[in-house]
Please model this.
Amino acid sequence: MSDRAVRLVAVVLGGCALVAAALGVTRGSSPAVWAAPGEAARGTWSAERGRDGDSASVIQLSMQRSGSGNWSNSHSMPLDKLEGLSAADLAAPSAEVRFAHRLDAGTFFFTGRFQTGIGAGLFTFTPNAEFIADMRRRGYDEVDEDKALALAVHDVSRAFIKELADLGYRDVPLDKLMALRIHGASAEYVRGLQSLGYRALPLDQVVAFRIHGASLEFVRGMQELGFRDLPADKLIAFRIHGVSPEYVRGLRDQGFRDLDADKLVAFRIHGVSPEFVRGFRDLGYQRLAGDELVTMRIHGVAPEFVRELKGLGYEAVPVDELVALRIHGVSTDFIRRVQQTSGKAVTLDRLVSMRIHGQGPD
Model:
């Protein structure tokens, strides 16, 4: 929240008249929007107008409840979902506002003030008694007014439950319904995964896909590169370790066209990038195996090290000798000092032996 928003929250919540209005909410006024009898919860809200191209039609709405069952929530909200709030209210130098967000589980009622795009005030929540009764009939006996509030915050609706059932997920526990909504696993997303071949994913894996950013575009991109029918856990491993379509294409441009999923993950874990491979190809190492590249990364054999060795007269050093040099701490500075002391070239085997036996350049 911006500093100006914080100041407005303090001003609005400190106004006794506003507080009284919010808690009394004009029961006799004509718009039914403002009637909030029997509300299950109350708290504070703040909002800022969107900062992108949709700034006139989207707000970032934050809500906080103190006392019993503390929680806070913040998300983007299209203006057309908020009954009674207009773009003119957002843009006004100062406007008292009353608006509502109606959901299947209940309705949030808001009162407060906006000042040129920043707003704050109080909210109350009225649970939908018919929703609670119907959810209990469906077997969700734990749904009460507090649960209805949690379901409303994350917009777990009966329509969402039906969409999941139509996709083959029936009798989904309440905690999994919440997890799906919290992490943005919509019915559209599940449907997209099914169209890409992932038809029987456990919901825990669907949530894991969303947590790790396995978007439909990502899955499709990997399939276009030949990774079809890849187990879900390997796709998640790709995301965790940064194996992207761009990364795979970069390695293929350097000659590695047949790496399997496990080898790609190993490459990423150890930092074998297309740039790393290109650096060695530029130095004449055209046929390096994947295991050799991983071993060199593990032991710190970098193109810069090989380039310095060439400058000291050591050309086309085999990979196993490069690794041995690094394992035993034969640095180019050590080699340079040995050469200066001996006045002649020294074999790499001799340099390694010196380090093993603790012999210095003098």
The longest helix spans residues 3-14.
